[in-house]
């Protein structure tokens, strides 16, 4: 083989290597273009909850809370009377624990629970959990408060059926929301760990390409 032929072969091999490198670079660029979209989809999925069969339990719990508002909480004062501070609530000397309980039930037990179920957003579910947990505490306090003599040894009406049902329903609702949120939190932690591992491996690959290892 002549020197000219050897040179031609060498140039051809070099050209093939250049083409291969160009194809690899183009593939990396194409992947980088789609990586942002992939990450956006992962973040969207990670921000959602999947309550499964617990969605029905939560929906039933919200319905029970709504029913408890039309039932008596103390004497003739219904839940809506406590919420709106009507004359019936003032006559029954409804205390602060009952007022806070009803407001937290409406805002978090009903409002944010419905929003979390409809949007499947993890953040809204967390807010529903926090508010429902506080409402559970005030529900127990409200029942205790209605059974405790007031100023001047005042004996008011005891806790009504609506207050008792509402307190039980918000406790059950809190329990199921905690299970939903905690299971999703574990998934978030696992996904974050996988992303850190993938980022470390990608950084190692980039370093190897740069150093020619």
Give an account of the 3D structure:
The radius of gyration is 31 Å and the shape is elongated. It has 213 residues and is mostly helical. Residues 3-27 have low confidence and may be disordered. It has seven helices and two strands; from the N terminus they run ααββααααα.
- State the separation between the terminal residues, measured CA to CA: 34 Å
What is the makeup of the main sheet? 2 strands, antiparallel
Major sheet: arrangement of strands: 1-2
H/I helix tally: 7
Helix and strand element order: HHEEHHHHH
Instruction: Output the structural class.
Output: mainly alpha
- Bin the strand percentage: under 5%
DSSP strand count: 2
Proportion of residues in helical segments? over 70%
Overall morphology: elongated
Over the alpha carbons, how many angstroms does the gyration radius reach? 31 Å
Uncertain stretches: 3-27
Give the integer mean of the pLDDT values: 77
Summarize the structure in short:
The protein is an all-alpha fold and about 210 residues long. The protein is built from seven helices and two strands.
Map the helices and strands.
Layout: H1 3-46, H2 54-70, E1 72-74, E2 77-78, H3 79-84, H4 87-91, H5 96-119, H6 122-146, H7 161-211
Antiparallel strand pairs: 1-2
Helix pairs in contact: 2-5, 2-7, 5-6, 6-7
């Amino acid at each position: 083989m002549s020197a000219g032929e050897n040179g031609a072969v060498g140039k051809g091999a070099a050209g093939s290597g250049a083409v291969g490198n160009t194809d690899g670079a183009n593939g990396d660029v194409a992947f980088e273009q789609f990586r942002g979209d992939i990450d956006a989809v992962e973040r969207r999925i990670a921000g959602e909850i999947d309550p499964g069969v617990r969605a029905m339990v939560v929906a039933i719990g919200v319905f029970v809370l709504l029913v408890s508002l039309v039932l008596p909480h103390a004497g003739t004062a219904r839940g809506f009377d406590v919420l709106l501070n009507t004359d019936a609530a003032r006559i029954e000397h409804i205390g602060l624990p009952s007022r806070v309980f009803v407001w937290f039930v409406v805002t978090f037990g009903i409002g944010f629970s419905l929003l979390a179920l409809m949007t499947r957003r993890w953040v809204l579910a967390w807010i529903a959990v926090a508010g429902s947990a506080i409402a559970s505490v005030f529900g127990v306090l409200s029942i205790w408060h209605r059974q405790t003599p007031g100023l001047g040894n005042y004996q008011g009406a005891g806790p009504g059926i609506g207050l008792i049902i509402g307190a039980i329903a918000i406790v059950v609702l809190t329990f199921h929301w905690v299970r939903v949120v905690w299971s999703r939190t574990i998934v978030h932690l696992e996904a974050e760990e996988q992303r850190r591992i993938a980022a470390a491996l990608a950084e190692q690959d980039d370093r190897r390409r740069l150093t020619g290892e």
